[in-house]
Structure prediction request, 73 residues.
Amino acid sequence: MTKPAVARRHLPSSPFKPPVTRPPKQFAMGDRVTHDEHGLGRVIGIEDEVAVLVDFGSVQARIMSPYSKLAKL
Prediction:
């Protein structure tokens, strides 16, 4: 059994830049979005930063956080 990866802390004396932390993606009702698999869609529901419900025309999909394949247009 392997141990889970642990984020390493950045030492102030390190010559390397600290890792960049990106802010989490946030979507609002009615936002136009694109998805790598489903294509263009519109946000029709939000579940407390856990998931978003998107209408892609032919299918409605519940996309879970982190929204790696989903981008706001």
